[in-house]
């Protein structure tokens, strides 16, 4: 069984992430979207909220499930017997760091990384920019799924 992991913070999930999930789902028997629990970093959304949003936006992708992990990604991959990690590459600027991480993960645990070139329509998109834009009353509706848009509006109206 070919099992792939899409890791990230997903604070919150964007249309760019969903594009990567769909493409990973087409390559694998099972895709595990893995949300990093980083107790040192407080996000806009709690881990539970991120997982819930991810569950809604992937509900039509039948071979995708959502999980969380702490610590090393490579240990998580080994614990669920995943063959590889899938990452989206938005631009050359992503490449240096992603290459280093993929080499480290392979050397440390023999877990490969598959890179998918992000759809150019999403090449500038990041959760951080969506949060900043949204927090300043910008319209982010073209960059996030509807359910995320509603959740962002609730956060920023508080
Ligand atoms: O969405 P993000 O924040 O860019 O995702 C980064 C993530 C979670 C993929 C990366 O920080 C990660 O893999 N963290 C787990 C800790 C780890 O394994 N670090 C060593 C990397 S070589």
Protein architecture, described:
- With 158 residues, the protein is an alpha/beta fold.
- The chain has six helices and five strands; from the N terminus they run βαβαβαβαβαα.
- The longest helix is centred in the middle third of the chain and has 18 residues, at 92-109.
- It binds 4'-phosphopantetheine (PNS).
Backbone shape: globular
- pLDDT averaged residue by residue: 96
Question: Which hetero ligands occur in this complex?
Answer: 4'-phosphopantetheine
Helix share bin: 40-55%
Number of strands: 5
What percent of residues are in strands?
A: 15-25%
The separation of the N and C termini measures 45 Å
Compute the gyration radius: what is it? 15 Å
Task: Summarize the model shown.
By secondary structure, the protein is α/β, with parallel strands linked by helices.
Topology overview:
Elements: E1 3-8, H1 15-27, E2 30-36, H2 47-57, E3 64-69, H3 73-79, E4 84-89, H4 92-109, E5 112-117, H5 127-135, H6 146-157
The site of 4'-phosphopantetheine has 9 residues, from β1 and α4.
Describe this protein with a few key phrases:
44% helix, 6 helices, five-stranded parallel β-sheet, binds 4'-phosphopantetheine, 158 residues
